[in-house]
Amino acid sequence: MSIQISVTIWTVICFILLMIILNNLLFKPVLEIMDKRREKIAAAKAKKTERDSLIAENERLLAEKKAEHAANEKKLIKERVEKVQSDRKKAVEAAKEVRLKKLDDARKKTEEEEAQILSKLSSHAEELAVMLADRIVKG
Q1: Span 18-32, mean pLDDT?
Q2: What is the pLDDT of residue 94?
Q3: How far apart are the first and last CA of the chain?
Q4: For the CA atoms of the chain, what is the radius of gyration?
Q5: How far apart are CA 119 and CA 46, in angstroms?
Q6: How far apart are CA 132 and CA 36, in angstroms?
Q7: Which backbone phi and psi does 22 adopt, to 5 degrees?
Q8: What gap in Å lies between CA 26 and CA 34, rounded to an integer?
């Protein structure tokens, strides 16, 4: 078997032509499709990363708002408790004042009744002393 130069040259020329044709018709379009696919995948990853960061930011803001809302609720409850306690103290003080006024009125009335009874007793004291002396003597 001998190597034929003309067949070798034609084989090389056909191979080069085949490579040029395949390069233009197959390799370049396939590489372009693959590059476009890589770009789409990268864009999708970027969108996913952006979406994840937005979700994380929204969750952080939601947590802050919840904490702020809880603090505001706690503050409102504290204010309401303080108002109720203040109103209770005022009511207790008012009740004490009413009770003291009634007590003073009762004391005055008792003192007036005592004075009336003592004045009646003093006016009848002589009569009672005479009656007592009569009973002791008769007795």
Answers
A1: 94
A2: 92
A3: 183
A4: 58
A5: 108
A6: 135
A7: -65, -40
A8: 12
Residue entry with tokens 């006024």: 101
> Which residue has 């009656």 as its token pair?
131
Upper half-sphere CA count for residue 122 (Cβ side, 13 Å)? 6
| pLDDT grade for 134, boundaries at 50, 70 and 90 | confident
Polymer length of the chain: 139
116-125 per-residue burial string, b: 16 or more CB within 10 A, e: under 16: eeeeeeeeee
- Average predicted confidence (pLDDT) for the chain: 92
**Tokens (6 digits) for 41:** 């995948």
Lowest mean pLDDT among 44-53, 97-106, 124-133: 124-133
Burial label for 86, CB within 10 Å (0-12, 13-18, 19+), is exposed
Q: Which amino acid is at 120?
A: K
**CA-CA-CA-CA dihedral for 19, 25, 30, 33, to nearest 10:** 150
Q: What is the largest CA-CA distance in the chain?
A: 186
pLDDT per residue over 80-96, tens digit each?
999 999 999 999 999 99
